[in-house]
Amino acid sequence: VSTQSTGFEGRGFQVYDSRPHGLKLEGCGDFAYNYDRKHAYLGYGFRTDKEAYNLVRDVIDFTGTEFHSLKLVSELCYHLDTAMLNLSRGHALVFTPAFDKQSLDLIKEVNGEENVIEITEEDCVKNFVPNAIPVQDGDKHYIVGLTFSPSLEGKLKDLGYNIITTPYQEYLKSGGSIRCSVLDIGI
């Protein structure tokens, strides 16, 4: 636990500092839950060490959740949230070249191969689709993102998602998009 005081501690959150363990762990960029929180993932390979999986597993209470690690192998995808997006209706948008075979097989096994939607390099790298935000409001399902190719947007609408695009081009200069500017604290 960190000895430095933060605004989070003042709000009742426990803050954990991974630096004394000598591990690279880039946090939310390499961590994701699936739609029902029965599965969680830690991406590793470029900015997060594989060994960080054990540290996260020991710090976070994953009762009722299976925790998996996914190896990123494409330099185009330096974080998990630049390679995969779990959606609120159980689908996963995945840039398949970003993962090794074992990780890709795991994604398909967990989500069901029929629920894995492969995205193009354009939607991954140019449109930053995996960095969008899925939102559920009652029986309505939204995806808030920068932009989507017409074919992907059509497919998502056919699956019952409402697409909301927002001008975030300036933020792309920092190497991220919408997901990089929010923090899901699970409340």
Structure report:
- It is a single chain.
- The longest helix has 11 residues, at 101-111.
- 30% of the residues are buried.
- A hairpin with a 5-residue loop joins strand 4 and strand 5 (92-94).
- The chain has five helices and nine strands.
- 20% of the residues lie in helices and 21% in strands.
- The strands form three sheets. Strands 1-2-3 form a three-stranded mixed beta sheet, with helices on both faces. A three-stranded mixed beta sheet has the order 4-5-6. Strands 7-8-9 form a three-stranded mixed beta sheet.
- It is α/β, with parallel strands linked by helices.
- It is globular and about 45 Å long.
Q: Helix and strand succession?
A: EEHEEEHEHEEHEH
Please give the count of helices: 5
Strand order of the largest sheet: 1-2-3
- The overall strand count is 9
- Beta-strand level of the residues, as a percent range? 15-25%
Low-confidence stretches: none
Indicate the percent of residues in helices: 10-25%
Instruction: Determine Rg (CA atoms, Å).
Output: 16 Å
